[in-house]
Amino acid sequence: MTILFNEIVFGPIKSRRLGVSLGVNLLPLHGKWCNFDCIYCECGFNKDGKGDLCLPTREEVANAMEAKFKNHDPSIGNIDTITFSGNGEPTLHPEFSKIIVKTLELREKFAPQAKVSVLTNGSRIGVKDVAEALLKVDNAIIKIDSALDGTVYAIDRPMFNYSVENMVAMLAPFKGKFVLQTMFLRGESPDGIIDNTTTEEVEAWYKLVGRIYPREIMIYTIDRETPLKSLQKVSVSQMEEIAAPLRAQGYKVSVSG
Ligand code: SF4
Fold first, then answer.
1. Residue 34: CB within 6 Å of ligand 1?
2. 39 lines ligand 1 (CB under 6 A)
3. Ligand 1 in contact with 37 (CB < 6 A)?
4. Mean pLDDT for the chain?
5. Which of 45, 109, 124, 155 shows a CA-CA span of 20 to 30 A to 223?
């Protein structure tokens, strides 16, 4: 079942991992908009999410966020995180950078303890105002699912000319300042076997990590139903094995199964 966020600002949700969190969806409420088309996307394939192309305006986002802060029930606890994710790629919103500036203002006013995070596929980190906005938030969480272009094309299906080398170049200003997020999975697509946990994949990924130097690394696997049905989870113990050499080098690595 595809899961779409049907509010601009959703939550607060209380979880062990994030504490009390608000989510922000800058994408259509009843559709999906992304320039990747990942085989594991919880919002479904792009072709199935075209029913709504309406983006919220900057004012609508600010009003929705302010209302959540003002109506927040303090008995739940303080808001710990504000996370931009939603039905697609948040940095595609044409007013993304201005929305981030406003969010940081509202955060200072209503929830100064809250951390602002953005989950992004990294496709627009080369755009000046997007990069500046991502460098202002507490956690720019940038997805790279493989160090090998062919595997990125198989898993993430970018709808533009993607290359890992280009990502490395665009990530230069982010060295030590971003969180790398990598999804590990295996399965079969009409184009063949997909597995980004092979020795070749993991060795190439370690080298990539050394070049881009993330502040933190989040590795995870599929958790819910995926649009490509043949996908399989990778075990926590295998992801822990993948994480171990990086931890030994001093990287902070979290694993979620
Ligand atoms: S980048 Fe995110 S929103 Fe876009 S297709 Fe992949 S998982 Fe879905």
1. yes
2. no
3. yes
4. 95
5. 124
Judge if pTM exceeds 0.85.
yes
Task: Give nearest CA residue, ligand 1 atom 2.
Answer: 88
Evaluate: CB of 84 within 6 angstroms of ligand 1: no
Query: How far does the centroid of ligand 1 lie from the alpha carbon of residue 80, in Å?
Result: 24
**Confidence category of residue 238, pLDDT binned at 50, 70, 90:** very high
Amino acid sitting at position 43: C
- Does ligand 1 come within 6 angstroms of the Cβ of 43? yes
pLDDT at 109: 97
- Torsion, CA 29, CA 42, CA 36, CA 8, rounded to 10: 20
Instruction: Dump the DSSP string for 135-185.
Output: HHSSEEEEE---SSHHHHHHHT--SS---HHHHHHHTGGGTTTSEEEEE--
Percentage of residues of the chain with pLDDT beyond 90 = 88
pLDDT higher than threshold 90 for residue 189: no
